[in-house]
Design brief:
Number of helices of chain B: 15
Distance between the termini of chain B: 96 Å
Shape of chain B: elongated
Strand content of chain B: 15-25%
Strand content of chain A: 15-25%
Structural class of chain A: alpha/beta
Helix content of chain A: 40-55%
Radius of gyration of chain B: 44 Å
Largest sheet of chain B: 6 strands, antiparallel
Strand order of the largest sheet of chain B: 8-7-6-11-10-9
Number of strands of chain B: 18
Structural class of chain B: alpha+beta
Radius of gyration of chain A: 14 Å
Oligomer: heterodimer
Chain lengths: 143, 549
């Protein structure tokens, strides 16, 4: 995995949550770059500007998508990313405040690779970190 | 000769003993020459009186009678199935008539056999009315008297009443009472007597719903206020009426008859303009209809009241449904929105705790207290969310295997059970009928509750068993060996946000058992608790029995 660097795009309108995720990610000890986008429109611009969203290797792009976003919501973005030929290989992790099964099912139906509930307190933060590490391991294994 | 004499006697005997009235009339003098005892009994005249009477005197429809005689005189025996006669008192007799002529000593006689069929006719008419009403009801394919049905029935009855009394116009109406208790009339059927565009408009716009008449200073008003019949053959000058509105069609006779149900005045019939005026005999003719009118009016009143009650109930139900939905939505939105700031609090607490090296002990303690308070608040919100979502659960009820539910619950609570070293024993549990989502919640809440209120020195042991008390319901019993409670609070523990100990280390939503109660009530069952301090608690859950399949 030498030279393997992930390009992580966090789509999150809440600054506190962005801080939380970036903090958790930084502790995970993988080489990566973070791009922070605050709403759906920024994501669409980003995708268009990068002409297929690819900075280095499309397979190294990982999206963390919040569901409740201003302008274009996370589920819409998920569909766009998963339907576009240039980005359909990208990993998409849905971040949601909801623990309800139906929300998880909808995300799965629309092609999300993972569905993570935003952690609540230290116990869940630890579990969340562990999940992210295992997701990254899987990802690197597959590449 | 001997033979002739015999037959004469036989005829005399037949004549005098016949149960039919027999009248013999001299055509030339137009007077009766002989009548039998039955005739005397029927008409009320003595034999001597009869000899001064002509056919005209006993007929209630003399024109018809005379016409019939003229037409039939030479045709031998004629039978007239229905004719109206009158007795000495002027009362109407409905009769069947067989008449013929014979000559004796060059004089022509008419003989008539008269049979009183008033009773028969009354029964016939009643039967006919019943049948008519029955037919109408049948044709509407329903036995309830709706507005449309009653309209058809009353229109038909009014037609009949006008026909049999030779009236020109009339109405059948219901008696209603205004706010101050004054009676008024609402028509069920009324002849259109509109005399100008304004009244025409009133008639056509209101005839379906019924026209209302509030002026009691009228002949029909007298019926409403006194509850008695009113016959008036000079309505214009009748002191009981207040005259007619300008333009109202001429009225030269009026008959108003109350309709009663069990003594109570519930409606009336009003008829007008019988050519030669109304008499008691008209009331007799109408009588058979009144019972039917009364029955239909009463049935319709019941229908109207039911419709009204149903409407009110439906409105109230819709209002409650809406308000419940609003409450649920409100609770779920509030809870979601409240959770985010709490999540931030606990997460930043976690970050602070992550900087352990830089923290004093007292800071660590304070951060821990902030965290606990936030967790507690979160539990409360979760509880409210859960409680409010119960009302929105629309999953269809089905047969649920409680063994399976309890097994799943135990799996879900694996961590808590490990942490507390708790165990759950359950035997052969039955199936019940209900919402899977809610029943799972029920057992999850009850088992969590037992684990939460465990004794610190004894590992929690929860036993779930059942006994089928009878064919009506199934009881599930959940017993634990926890801290229990004083039985005084057996009811109170199901109230929202009730906790029996103030121990902050036990963090609950305060709604767990309330939710259980709500679930059982929505399953038409129940839940009760029994407790003994430091011994344990016992919950008895009752499901209504529902056979599988």
């Amino acid at each position: 995995v030498i030279g393997m660097s992930l390009n992580i795009v966090i789509v999150e309108d809440d600054e506190n949550d962005y801080e939380l995720f970036s903090r958790i990610l930084k502790k995970c000890d993988f080489p990566f770059e973070i791009t922070w986008l605050k709403d759906g429109e920024e994501v669409i611009n980003y995708l268009e500007k990068t002409g297929g969203f690819v900075l280095k290797n499309p397979c190294n792009d990982v999206f963390f998508l919040d569901i409740n976003l201003p302008k274009v919501d996370g589920l819409e973005l998920l569909k766009k990313i998963k339907c576009h030929p240039a980005t359909k290989e990208c990993f998409v992790v849905i971040l949601s405040g909801s623990r309800m099964k139906q929300d998880l099912d909808i995300a799965k139906e629309n092609g999300s690779d993972f569905y993570l509930v935003k952690p609540f307190g230290k116990k869940e933060i630890n579990e969340f970190s562990n999940k992210i590490i295992s997701i990254f391991r899987d990802l690197i294994k597959k590449r | 000769m001997q033979e002739k004499l015999d037959s004469k006697e036989i005829y005399r005997k037949l004549f005098s003993s016949s149960s039919d009235a027999i009248l013999i009339l001299d055509v030339e003098s137009n007077k009766f020459v002989d009548v039998n005892d039955s005739a005397i009994a029927l008409y009320g005249y003595s034999h001597a009186e009869f000899l001064n009477l002509s056919l005209r005197d006993i007929s209630a429809e003399p024109k018809n009678n005379e016409k019939a005689i003229k037409e039939n005189l030479n045709e031998g025996l004629t039978k007239t199935p229905y004719r109206l006669h009158k007795n000495k008192e002027g009362e109407i007799l409905q009769v069947e008539l067989t008449a013929g002529t014979f000559k004796s000593n060059d004089r022509s006689f008419i003989y008539a056999l008269v049979r009183d069929i008033s009773e028969r006719k009354k029964h016939e008419r009643e039967l006919l009315i019943s049948k008519k009403i029955w037919d109408i009801l049948q044709s509407t394919q329903s036995l309830s008297i709706s507005h449309a049905h009653s309209k058809i029935i009353f229109d038909k009855v009014l037609d009949d009443l006008l026909e049999i009394t030779s009236g020109e116009y009339g109405f059948i109406g219901e008696v209603l009472y205004g706010e101050e208790g004054q009676p008024y009339l609402k028509t069920k059927a009324i002849t259109n007597i509109a005399w100008n565009s304004k009244t025409e408009k009133l008639y056509s716009s209101q005839k379906e719903l019924g026209l209302e008449f509030h002026n009691l200073d009228t002949l029909f008003g007298k019926v409403l206020t006194t509850g008695e019949k009113v016959i008036s053959n000079d309505p214009i000058n009748d002191p009981r009426g207040g005259g007619l509105p300008i333009g109202h069609p001429e009225m030269h006779s009026f008959l108003g008859i109350p309709i009663r149900f069990g003594g109570e005045l519930i409606g009336m019939v009003g008829l007008a303009n019988k050519p030669d005026g109304y008499f008691e005999s008209d009331i007799k003719k109408i009588e058979p209809y009144l019972d039917s009118c009364s029955t239909v009016l009463e049935a319709y009143r019941g229908y109207e009241q039911r419709i009204e009650a149903e409407k009110n109930l439906k409105n109230a139900y819709e209002a409650i449904k809406l308000s419940n939905k609003e409450l649920s939505t409100f609770a779920s939105i509030t809870s979601h929105d409240l959770k985010n700031p709490l999540r931030r609090i606990v997460n930043y607490c976690a970050f602070i705790e992550g900087e352990e090296a830089e923290l004093s002990d007292i800071t660590k303690q304070y951060v821990n207290k902030i965290e606990l308070a936030a967790y507690h608040a979160n539990n409360l919100i979760e509880g409210i969310l859960e409680y409010s979502q119960l009302g929105m659960d629309k999953t269809p009820h089905k047969v649920i295997d409680l063994k399976e539910i309890v097994s799943i619950t135990i799996e879900n609570l694996e961590f808590e059970l490990l942490e507390t070293k708790g165990k759950v024993d359950f035997g052969n549990l039955p199936s019940v009928f209900g919402s899977e989502f809610q029943i799972r919640q029920l057992f999850e809440n009850l088992i969590s509750n037992s684990l939460k209120y465990r004794r610190m020195d004894v590992p929690p042991n929860i036993k779930i068993s059942h006994h089928e008390t009878n064919r009506d319901h199934v009881q599930i019993i959940l017993e634990d060996n926890g801290i229990g409670f004083d039985n005084v609070y057996a009811k109170k523990i199901f109230d929202p946000f009730q906790r029996l100990d103030g121990d902050i280390s036990i963090l609950g939503s305060g709604l767990g058992l309330s939710i259980c109660k709500k679930i059982m009530l929505s399953h038409l069952g129940g839940i009760i608790a029994e407790g003994e301090v430091n011994r344990g608690a016992r919950f008895v859950i009752t499901f209504p029995f529902k056979e599988e399949g």
